[in-house]
Amino acid sequence: MPDERIATVTPVTERDARGKVADLFADIKRTKNLDAVPNFWRVLATNPDHLELVWTRLKALMHPEAAGRTSPLDPVTREIIALAVSATNGCAYCVNSHTAALRKLGMGVEALGEVLAIVGLFNSTNALADGYQVRPDVLPPQD
Amino acid sequence: MPDERIATVTPVTERDARGKVADLFADIKRTKNLDAVPNFWRVLATNPDHLELVWTRLKALMHPEAAGRTSPLDPVTREIIALAVSATNGCAYCVNSHTAALRKLGMGVEALGEVLAIVGLFNSTNALADGYQVRPDVLPPQD
Amino acid sequence: MPDERIATVTPVTERDARGKVADLFADIKRTKNLDAVPNFWRVLATNPDHLELVWTRLKALMHPEAAGRTSPLDPVTREIIALAVSATNGCAYCVNSHTAALRKLGMGVEALGEVLAIVGLFNSTNALADGYQVRPDVLPPQD
Amino acid sequence: MPDERIATVTPVTERDARGKVADLFADIKRTKNLDAVPNFWRVLATNPDHLELVWTRLKALMHPEAAGRTSPLDPVTREIIALAVSATNGCAYCVNSHTAALRKLGMGVEALGEVLAIVGLFNSTNALADGYQVRPDVLPPQD
Amino acid sequence: MPDERIATVTPVTERDARGKVADLFADIKRTKNLDAVPNFWRVLATNPDHLELVWTRLKALMHPEAAGRTSPLDPVTREIIALAVSATNGCAYCVNSHTAALRKLGMGVEALGEVLAIVGLFNSTNALADGYQVRPDVLPPQD
Amino acid sequence: MPDERIATVTPVTERDARGKVADLFADIKRTKNLDAVPNFWRVLATNPDHLELVWTRLKALMHPEAAGRTSPLDPVTREIIALAVSATNGCAYCVNSHTAALRKLGMGVEALGEVLAIVGLFNSTNALADGYQVRPDVLPPQD
Q1: Does the complex come out with an ipTM higher than 0.90?
Q2: Nearest to B58 by CA among F54, A88, F66
Q3: Helix or strand holding residue C45 (H, E)
Q4: Alpha-carbon gap, residue A137 to A122, rounded angstroms
Q5: Residue B120 CB contacts under 8 Å (≥ 6 apart), including other chains
Q6: Hey, are the CB atoms on C57 and E53 less than 8 Å from each other?
Q7: What's chain B look like in SS3?
Q8: Cα distances (angstroms) measured from residue F95 to each of B127, F90, F114
Q9: Is the CB of residue F139 less than 8 Å away from at least one CB of chain E?
Q10: Digits of tens for pLDDT over chain E (143 positions)?
Q11: CA distances (Å), A127 to each of A121, B91, F112, in order?
């Protein structure tokens, strides 16, 4: 039997999922068009309420049509934001997951490089603005 | 005389700029179509080589046409990445600056809210993936 | 001989510990009721003064009774804070270590999920408050 | 008329709130027992769906009884986690808000100091564990 | 009476300091050659044990001769590290404090710019290495 | 054939490098006195403009003489800053790389421990200053 210990807790397998967890696993696979439930969701399932809270929010923002919403942003832009945040935080699982999502949406390595180039640039300027304690420019009112 | 001490160093005024710094200030105003040099660049000008290094990189990535490049990303997407990084790092100067840039490019408050909603969501999932030490899913080869 | 290179420096083995380091290793095992010195302390031992400084502070705050102090916080709360900080910073060693400590103190996976759910939530709201540059509410004086 | 520009967007006033936003504002004040809606929620209200998503999750985790849940954690522990995350991220709005909540729940300055002492300690050990690339200790299975 | 509320707690004044706190305040002023106790230490004094723990560690590392130690690093290098960490974390109080310390040690604005240039550069490459999930190079053994 | 998939993209091999990328690879090896191009640069090469932008900046700041500049900082101080930033961000690749560079420049484990001790200390005080929202001390003008 393969080792299921892939985290600090034992992830819930699809076979062991019951009730609310089973329903959420099915919705995750259907909405994301996947054959298996990713490790992230199987780990969250150790607290079913938490699984539901995170999935509800992620579904609304990243799969708006499935959640009955319209979003002003397109799917590629949404995944670019996810990758920018994940690279800035240095979250390995998240970087892998959102890079894979962008590749699946058709992004090539040169465009991916452009996204990360801008992520790298602004991690630099953020440290500089904070390191010099630069005060915001006086800007005209915006609305 | 107004107080020019807006940072941990005294920013270089446009009037005092000489040589390389004066040329870079002119290029910044021309490229960004601004009437005055923002505080960030005036502070960097206390080390002229550094001013040049950061501006060269930012111009190439954020104003590619002015730098003789073509970018696979459009201006709104580039500023969205800048805001996502800045909000994740909590850099006040940078958040103000990139929000202003997005508003100037025509983004309304509801779309801005959608960008920050996704930024907020993935700062949450990043902490969860790291907090549970979730291992990356086994993914098929990508190229 | 097993490979001892588990870090950027070679950790000090218990067998090789001498003088101050040997005394500190003994105190760490006694205070934490452990059979072996964790890797973290063996690595710090490459600079004995540093080992002493960190252990003195950690012992005072996390094992107050052994340090002759009384703490207003109970052991579970103290470890919850440690995990919240470690998950927010994405520190793998620390997440593993403090999750193990919480499990040893009797915390089940559902309660662990509730801790991480709140950690995830506030990593999200932190990014939102910074991303919108929300000013603090005016609050009545506190003391 | 007082200046309402307290953020990068103009916060929604309680007077201007309509429909879903008005209902959520009322629920926030009732659940948190407040006389006025904090700035954070007024800013989120510029994107009503986002306001609803964040409030639903925060209400479930921080006010579980009002959301029809039971939580394995008590209110003080929940706010301690919020403060630990906020101090680690350096989010000014959030630090102010969660410190005020803890004071309201009866925490004195000495206990608050103990919370922050542990937050400070583990921000230190996190940087050390990462700075030395310490590998996790081999631990016995946990469940 | 001037407002003493400069933090989330009321800082301890030098006039009100008693016993251990008064002794520590005196040692801080003597060791750092200051006329007044900085706000940071006055705030920590609301939990006297914590004040002692942090000061003991900072004195040993930043004022080693006063603590009876020898350090392999000189005072300028030690403050440079403090500024690099503070700029990376975006901590306003700390950036101001350590920039002032470097200026007092004789560092000019151009050298300060070089320090921050390197801080900015590696905040950028860190995000890139994490954003691409680059694996460490195979290096020859080091000792 | 050995697996070349060491990142989220397939790194460019030295054998496959053409034109600008080949020239940059040669300059990296010559400037850094290396036998092989590190993984970081091979990954960046998937977007040749980005490789050039990052290398130009890193060469100017970390190898100033090769770039025709003079730096007010010595090589050890420059690498110490790089390690301080990388440890604070928890970037594994970067910590390994800059620790190796410091060891190559002759730094022993005890001095390395002193560097990381100060990094750890200020990650702690940063969280404390932010966690208490300490306001900057009033300082005399600096220049």
Answers
A1: yes
A2: F54
A3: none
A4: 18
A5: C124, C125, C127, C128, C131, D54
A6: yes
A7: CCCCCCCCCCCCCCCCCCHHHHHHHHHHHHHHCCCCCCHHHHHHCCCHHHHHHHHHHHHHHHCHHHHCCCCCCCHHHHHHHHHHHHHHHCCHHHHHHHHHHHHHCCCCHHHHHHHHHHHHHHHHHHHHHHHCCCCCCCCCCCC
A8: 21, 8, 15
A9: yes
A10: 344 556 899 999 999 999 999 999 999 999 999 999 999 999 999 999 999 999 999 999 999 999 999 999 999 999 999 999 999 999 999 999 999 999 999 999 999 999 999 999 999 999 999 999 999 887 654 44
A11: 10, 8, 24
Predicted pLDDT at A7: 83
For every residue of F55-72, which 3-state class applies, written as one string? HHHHHHHHCCHHHCCCCC
Does D44 sit within 8 Å of B113, measured CB to CB?
A: yes
What is the tens place of the pLDDT at every residue in C1-49?
A: 345 556 899 999 999 999 999 999 999 999 999 999 999 999 999 999 9
Q: List, as one string, the DSSP characters of E33-55.
A: T-SS--HHHHHHTTSHHHHHHHH
> How far does C65 lie from chain D, in Å, by closest CA?
14
DSSP letter assigned to residue E9: S
Q: Which of A46, A132, A143 to mutate to test the interface with B (most CBs of B within 10 A)?
A: A132
Query: Tens of pLDDT along B52-63?
Result: 999 999 999 999
Q: Which of B44, B46, B90 sits opposite E90 (nearest CB)?
A: B90
Q: What number of CA atoms fall less than 13 Å from residue E115's CA on the CB side? A: 29
Contact A50 C90 (CB under 8 A): no
